[in-house]
Amino acid sequence: MVRHLIILQSIVVWNLPVYKILQHTLSMIGITIVVVVIGLALYKTVSDKKTLPTVTYKQKLYYWSFAVMGAVFVTVCKLIFTSSGNIIGILVVAPITGFCLGILLTSLFWNTKRNRTREAVDG
Q: What domain of life does the UniProt record list for this protein's source (predicted)?
């Protein structure tokens, strides 16, 4: 797409093309938004628990194993199904994406499981 839009390739500042400046600026804006949202959520959270929940070694092992499996799965799928020749880029970005996806899905699974268990005990 950048090859078709000449204006994005033009040099603007510090010998950088417009598309690089846009890419990095939007990445920084996105990271800032994520940090602000997390900060506000933490600030608004009222802690009514005096102790942290106990997490066993086995639970931690399962959690991080699923996160690593997510990274491996996404990387393998990306390598198999991509038509891009940018293998180094894929080997850098895909594991990070897969690891984050693994953490997200594992956390959602654990929260759902914990809430169902809590409802069964309370109900």
A: Bacteria
